[in-house]
Amino acid sequence: MCVSKEKKLVVEMLFNNWGATADRLTKGWIEYRIDLFMKYALQSLLLQSSQDFTCYLLYDPNSEKLIQETLKKYPPLPSNIRFVTPKDYQAHVIQDIREFKYLYRVYLSSDDMYHKDFIKKLHDYTPRKDTVALIPQYGYIYDSVQHRLGKFFFWLPSYGATLIRVDEYLRGQAARTSWRDAFKVPREFINIKEPIWINHIHGQNTGTTFDNVLTWKIANVHDACSLDPWDNGKQPRAFFGPEITEPNEIERILKNFF
């Protein structure tokens, strides 16, 4: 099968190379987070109906020894999924994209999940010529401790992709745009009213809890996936609901993600 040279999809995960968590360089934090990755995000990547992507998990060089020691406890990762330092990441990406027209920076946290067809849908999708960001606003929140699941709408999720011309990237002229900048650039909403990601609550989250999101309601709205795309970055909008309580339905949904 001939692989298109139009776009190269690089899934970018920030593992512990940023300073939001004080204990991110400790043995306990690294072991816990790598275990989460192996059980959830990795399984989601392995489940993808298209394996035409490369995934890099970026780690702080100061944790090199702990990262490598912990990874030895698990089966080897497939060749398209690697733990790398930020410096090595840049070198790998430059090598990956040389024969392509566009680099798609695709975003995922190391404990979250995509629907099994997410990568395929990105390959199949043809954006407008001026589009810089693709935003999927519809997904689920899953609490793996309580085994609770609900639909979720978020105006600017940490998923989706930003599109970069390879020639500009190789010349060092590409804008440093990430998912956080999606409302500042030409954008399109994708997978509209279709839950395409899981925001995973696992007991040691720094962002939110399942009980918190139960209160995120909008008057007269009962289904998060009934909302139209929200393009108003000045007035952020999020919505939870409904919670899915039927055990067989929960299992059916989760099987599409990991």
How would you portray this structure in words?
This protein has 258 residues and is an alpha/beta fold. It has one domain (7-254): Spore Coat Polysaccharide Biosynthesis Protein SpsA, Chain A, CATH 3.90.550. The protein is 25% helix and 24% strand. It has helices at 27-47, 64-71, 86-97, 118-124, 166-170, 210-213, 247-254, and strands at residues 7-14, 54-58, 81-84, 102-107, 113-114, 133-135, 138-143, 148-154, 161-165, 187-189, 197-201, 238-244. A seven-stranded mixed β-sheet has the order 3-2-1-4-9-6-10, with helices on both faces. The chain has a five-stranded mixed β-sheet with strand order 5-11-7-8-12. Helix 1 (27-47) packs across helix 2 (64-71). The model has no long low-confidence stretch (mean pLDDT 94).
Please describe the topology of this protein:
Blueprint: E1 7-14, H1 27-47, E2 54-58, H2 64-71, E3 81-84, H3 86-97, E4 102-107, E5 113-114, H4 118-124, E6 133-135, E7 138-143, E8 148-154, E9 161-165, H5 166-170, E10 187-189, E11 197-201, H6 210-213, E12 238-244, H7 247-254
Parallel strand pairs: 1-2, 1-4, 2-3, 6-10, 7-11
Antiparallel strand pairs: 4-9, 5-11, 6-9, 7-8, 8-12
Helix pairs in contact: 1-2
The gist of it:
With 258 residues, the chain is α/β, with parallel strands linked by helices. It has 7 helices and 12 strands. The chain has helices spanning 27-47, 64-71, 86-97, 118-124, 166-170, 210-213, 247-254; strands at residues 7-14, 54-58, 81-84, 102-107, 113-114, 133-135, 138-143, 148-154, 161-165, 187-189, 197-201, 238-244.
